[in-house]
Write a structure and sequence with these properties.
- With 205 residues, the chain is mainly alpha-helical.
- It contains nine helices and no strands.
- 58% of the residues lie in helices and 0% in strands.
- It folds into two domains: 11-89, no CATH class; 110-198, no CATH class.
Length: 205
């Protein structure tokens, strides 16, 4: 039995081996007029395979480009469009560098850790305490989504201290009241972004 894995690799598998065999046949035709008629028929069949794309700009051009690719640019016919060999017309894009950021606790995420670094730069006072409450609330929500059994105020306080190298100590009694307030009044949708937006709106008013 002849398996596809044992056959020649298709340049454009989306058209199937039947279309590729038609293209291979067109290459064997002796006269240019025969090759031209065969190519026109092949492109027509290729277009019928994707009728929903007929209104897409340059659809016909793409079909002729694909025919040339499947023929390895060896089909001697009069193409209705300019055909540029792929190796010259399409440059392989450079791989995109993925922003690898090392974070202490993956379940909290990079942005939350960035906020804790910001707290280290702030002087002790009401503003840093308010930011600590916001961050702690978001940390508790992250723990709830990651592992409900781990959602504990002691762990939030401990992790926050670890994040800030012991500079920020969470008032757990006050924190519980703040967290309960926002859980009750915002349906559990408390997060740092919403809180910051609320503060901005108040300043504008």
């Amino acid at each position: 039995m002849n398996y596809n894995t044992q056959r020649k690799k298709l340049p454009l598998p989306e058209y199937g081996r039947g279309i590729q065999e038609m293209v291979d046949y067109a290459l064997t035709l002796p006269t240019k007029s025969e090759r031209q008629r065969c190519a026109n028929t092949i492109v027509s069949i290729m277009g019928n395979m994707f009728p929903h794309l007929r209104d897409v700009p340059d659809f016909k051009h793409k079909l002729w480009d694909h025919l040339a690719i499947m023929a390895e640019y060896k089909l001697d016919i009069d193409y209705p469009y300019e055909i540029i060999p792929q190796k010259e017309g399409i440059a392989k894009p450079e791989p995109m560098a993925y922003p690898m950021k090392k974070i202490k606790y993956h379940h909290y995420g990079y942005l939350l850790e960035s906020l804790t670094k910001k707290m280290e730069e702030m002087p002790d006072g009401p503003e840093r305490e308010e930011l600590a409450m916001m961050v702690a609330c978001q940390m508790k929500k992250c723990l709830n989504g990651w592992n409900k059994d781990a959602m504990d105020d002691d762990k939030v306080a401990s992790d926050l201290e670890a994040y800030t190298n012991g500079m920020v100590h969470l008032d757990k009694e006050k924190f519980q009241k703040v967290y309960d307030f926002y859980e009750k009044n915002q349906g559990g949708r408390y997060n740092v972004t919403n809180r910051n937006n609320t503060k901005k709106n108040k300043r504008k008013n």
